[in-house]
Design goal:
The complex is a heterodimer of chains A (174) and B (109).
Chain A: H1 2-22, H2 32-35, H3 38-63, H4 67-97, H5 106-137, H6 146-172
Helix pairs in contact in A: 1-5, 1-6, 3-4, 3-6, 4-5, 5-6
Chain B: H1 2-5, H2 10-15, H3 22-44, H4 52-71, H5 79-102
Helix pairs in contact in B: 3-4
The chains are: A mainly alpha (174), B mainly alpha (109).
């Protein structure tokens, strides 16, 4: 898992570089400052940060053999992941309505590529979490199988740290 | 001991008891929320415009470190895992720096 996450650093490093290289080079609008809704994205960021807290509480619960706790925290993590994805879906559709698509300009192409791939990672994470939750509901997630939660948690936290960078570099830095 | 640790990852055998508890996780979560709120507040303070980029980068790096060290428990895991992750991160940083220099991003090109 750590090797995979190391390689994912390179993947997202390339996408973030691509965004930064393309920044300010769009020949036609719309431009970033016309599109971003910082308060809205801050709420999405809050949801993703809190989902990481829920995930680590699920990990702590399985380490103690607390199966009820694992079920609750896994479901809470997946729910907050879905809240984040809902926010991203709303943001993408409103951008498209306002005329920004993947083909509009360099900003649109690099923005949708970066945040779209991140959203795809979150989607995979939510599916993974819900699968674990189903296993937990059937009583199959015991303390001896804590590695399953550990690996999902590592992936989920990685998705969170990538968003920490994206939120700063893409949304906040002018 | 043998039966108890069977099927657990290598780091779980050695560091299970070193991992922080839920109290520490909640504390880290609170700090993460406060740092994010500070980032957003700084974004809206016009008198800090000149220092905006360095402030945001420092706050972002602090959040990144907190999640990686505590939530991903790299602070408590083996050096091998740290090497694998930070090796990838170092390569990614070098790649980003090379690309940004190549495209003259720092020089307004």
């Amino acid at each position: 898992m750590w090797t995979f996450l190391g390689s994912e650093c390179l993947f997202f490093g390339s996408l973030i570089s691509n965004y930064l290289v393309s920044k300010g080079k769009s020949l036609v609008g719309p431009y970033p400052h016309e599109m971003f809704d910082i308060p809205f994205t801050s709420v999405s960021t809050f949801a993703l940060l809190m989902s990481s807290l829920m995930m680590v509480l699920a990990y702590a619960a399985i380490q103690k053999g607390n199966q009820r706790g694992v079920r609750i925290w896994l479901l809470a993590t997946a729910f907050l992941g879905l809240v984040f994805l809902g926010g991203q879906f709303y943001e993408f559709t409103s951008f498209v309505r306002e005329g920004l698509t993947l083909q509009t300009n360099l900003f649109g192409a690099s923005f949708f590529l970066l945040t779209g791939f991140h959203g795809a990672h979150v989607t995979i994470g939510v599916i993974w979490l819900l699968s674990l939750w189903v296993v937990a509901m059937r009583g199959g997630l015991t303390r001896e199988k804590s590695l399953n939660v550990d690996l999902a948690a590592l992936y989920w936290h990685f998705v969170d740290v990538i968003w920490i960078i994206i939120f700063t570099v893409v949304y906040l830095i002018p | 001991m043998e039966g108890k640790t069977q099927g657990l990852p290598a780091h779980a055998e050695t560091s299970e008891h070193k991992h922080p508890g839920p109290g520490t996780y909640v504390l880290v979560g609170t700090v993460l929320v406060m740092l994010t709120a500070t980032e957003v507040a700084v974004y809206y303070i016009s008198s800090l415009r000149g220092l905006l980029v360095p402030i945001l980068l420092v706050l972002s790096a602090a959040k990144f470190s907190l999640v990686v060290l505590f939530y991903m428990h790299l602070k408590f895991d083996s050096r091998l895992f740290r090497g694998l992750f930070f090796g990838g991160l170092a390569l990614a940083s070098a790649l980003m720096l090379a690309l940004l220099l190549l495209f003259r991003v720092f020089f307004g090109g």
